[in-house]
Each structure stands twice: as structure tokens, then as C-alpha cells.
Amino acid sequence: MDIKMNGKIKHIILVLSFLWMMPSLSHAQIDPTLTAMILEYTHKAKSQYNSQLEVMAVETEGHVWLKQEVEATKNYQEQFDRYISTFRGIISYAAQVYGFYYEINHLAENMGRLSHQIGDTPVNAIAVALHNHRNDIYVDIINQSIGIVNTIRQVCIDTKMTEKQRIELVFSIRPQLQQMNRKLAMLTKLVRCTTMAQVWYGIEQRSLPHREGKAGIVEECLGMWRVNGRSVKPRR
């Protein structure tokens, strides 16, 4: 009997401690600041998603790019940077006000590494967006961040939820942030390794006849190896 009672007491203390750490969850109200941030984010997410689809369509067609397509590709990365900054603002605000501290520091570090890598190799960032087999990473990050913001919106703004539902959603944010961190780390690696030469090689390969079977695979691998070799800078 004492063991069961102690277990119940520990459970109650754990729940009360959790609610004490996040007092705003116990009295959920519409937060005008967070609401405005989410509205701005939603607008930018839609714009960024459409922009990514346009860039992917340019690469898919593989023709001589028009002036407006070149300009759209050039401005694409700036839009993505602003989009990520808006997402980081929402996460940081929610962490301070509502106690979402899970993976936040790691997320900020990954965003910093990504920004630094894009600053070092901006053309490579555009190359990733144009690469036929690698540009899905941008869409994945957009979809992942939309899911996280939607969860935050439900937890912080939806006043019709029960406390149990609210706590379950709070605990679901951490694995979502972990997945986002993995995507950002992968994008950083792709920006470091992807070049425009690889993009042009892919366009060229799709427009030329290929040998079938193992000979075709070997030929394609050798061609890609040559392209990658030209972009390698030897260490001094």
C-alpha cells in the first residue's frame, strides 16, 4: 500500500513540477505577439515553397535559362535565409515564454553553421536548390518547420485543448526539433559539397544517349568523379 501511495505521490509531484515550469500552459490564452509571428511565418512559408518549386522546374526543364529565371534563382537563397530567420524567431520566442527548451540550443547552432556555410559558398547553396537529386532537402525543411510551428500554434494559442492534450503536444515538439536538426546538418553538408558543375553535368547527362547496363553505370560514375575532382581544393 505504501509503495503504491509513494508511486502516486511521485507521479503527482512530477506533473505539478512540469506545470510549474510552464505556467502559461495552465492558463492558455491567445498570445498576440506569437500570433503575429505565426501569420508572418505562414506567408513566408507559402512564398518560399512556391519559390522552391519554380527553381526546381527551371532545373528540370534543362534549357537555356531566361533572364527572369536567373534572377529568380539568385534571389531564392535570400528568401530562404529570411524564412529560416522567421522560423528561428518563433522557436526562440516560444522557448522563452512557454518553456520549449528542447533542442533549441542545438537548433541555433545548426542554423549558425548553415548560415556560415552559405556565406562561404553561396553558389553551392543555389546548386543544391537546382540539383535534381538533392533539392528535396529544401522542401523537407519547409515541411518540417511548418509542422513544428503548427504544433506550437496548437499548444500556445488553441484554448479548447485539455491540459493532457497540451502536455502531449509539448512532449512531441522535441523529436520534431531533433528531425529538423538532422535536416539542417544534412543541408549544411550538401551546401559544402554540391557545385554548379554537378548540376550542369546532370542536365547534360539527361540530354545525351547512354549505354545500358553496367557499362552505362561505370561511364556515369567516371563522369561524376571527374566533375567532383575539379571542385576539390588541395590543402596546403
UniProtKB/TrEMBL annotation:
Keywords: Signal. Residues 1-28 form the signal peptide. This is Uncharacterized protein. It comes from Xylanibacter ruminicola (Prevotella ruminicola). The lineage of its organism: Bacteria, Pseudomonadati, Bacteroidota, Bacteroidia, Bacteroidales.
